[in-house]
Design a protein that fits this description.
The complex is a heterodimer of chains A (about 110) and B (about 110). Chain A has no helices and 11 strands. In chain A, strands 2, 4, 5, 6, 9, 10 and 11 form a 7-stranded mixed sheet that branches. Chain B has about 110 residues and is an all-beta fold. Helix content of chain B is about 0%, strand content about 55%. In chain B, strands 2, 4, 5, 9, 10 and 11 form a 6-stranded mixed sheet that branches. Chain B has a 5-stranded antiparallel sheet with strand order 1-3-8-7-6, with no helix packed on it. In chain B, a hairpin with a 5-residue loop joins strand 4 and strand 5. Chain B is globular, with a radius of gyration of 13 Å. The chains are: A mainly beta (about 110), B mainly beta (about 110). The interface between A and B is medium-sized, with 24 and 22 residues.
């Protein structure tokens, strides 16, 4: 058990809809990272937050947004969903702001867009 | 430009045989390097990491990796494969120029009984 909790585990929704994925980092970790994993794109970095502030942005679409709350949990919002958004979405946390701190991953949320 | 490259998207070995999964990075300055394993329907789990110091790094489950600056490589090995090693393996780097993790495309390891 990595200590990173993601909910829900599975999500099935229709095109055009909006969903929210939630992540609770390990106790004491200040950084939260979001990744998208799909068969054709591999593991894609989306965005990182550190202590409530956005720190780095990767290949995140404009339809997607995220935030980290004062209690350090994070939410990833996906809107105007398309079939291609179907993927596994992982949250990871680390104590600091990158450098040599390894990431600890949650078990992911599997999103299916129909 | 790719920061980390994993050669071979699929590797098959017989049970008891040597496991060798290849990872090369592109950086003029030695980065921080990691190997992760992903079992079906699970998140990524840290196997081992290299930051500074000894170039041969030992991880969990009998895996180890050697950092070779001259070859810009960080290959993962295990002397004797076990059926339970069947999984997806990811190499990752943090470049010293920033704080982002860059993951390779992954190598799927199959262990043949």
């Amino acid at each position: 058990d990595s200590g990173v909790t993601q909910t829900p585990k599975h999500l099935i929704t229709a095109t055009g809809q909006r969903v929210t994925l939630r992540c609770s980092p390990r106790s004491g970790d200040l950084s939260v990272y979001w990744y998208q994993q799909s068969l054709d794109q591999g593991l894609q970095f989306l965005i990182q937050y550190y202590n409530g502030e956005e720190r780095a942005k990767g290949n995140i679409l404009e339809r997607f947004s995220a935030q980290q709350f004062p209690d350090l949990h994070s939410e990833l919002n996906l809107s105007s969903l398309e079939l291609g958004d179907s993927a596994l979405y992982f949250c990871a946390s680390s104590p600091g702001d990158g450098q040599n701190s390894p990431l600890h991953f949650g078990n992911g949320t599997r999103l299916t867009v129909t | 430009a790719q920061s980390v490259t994993q050669l071979g998207s699929h590797v098959s070995v017989s049970e008891g045989a040597l496991v060798l999964l290849r990872c090369n990075y592109s950086s003029s300055v030695p980065p921080y390097l990691f190997w992760y394993v992903q079992y079906p329907n699970q998140g990524l789990q840290l196997l081992l990491k290299y930051t500074t110091g000894a170039t041969l790094v030992k991880g969990i489950n009998g895996f180890e990796a050697e950092f070779k600056k001259s070859e810009t490589s960080f290959h993962l090995t295990k002397p004797s494969a076990h059926m339970s090693d069947a999984a997806e393996y990811f190499c990752a780097v943090i470049l010293n120029t920033g704080n982002q993790f860059y993951f390779g495309t992954g190598t799927s390891l199959t262990v043949i009984p």
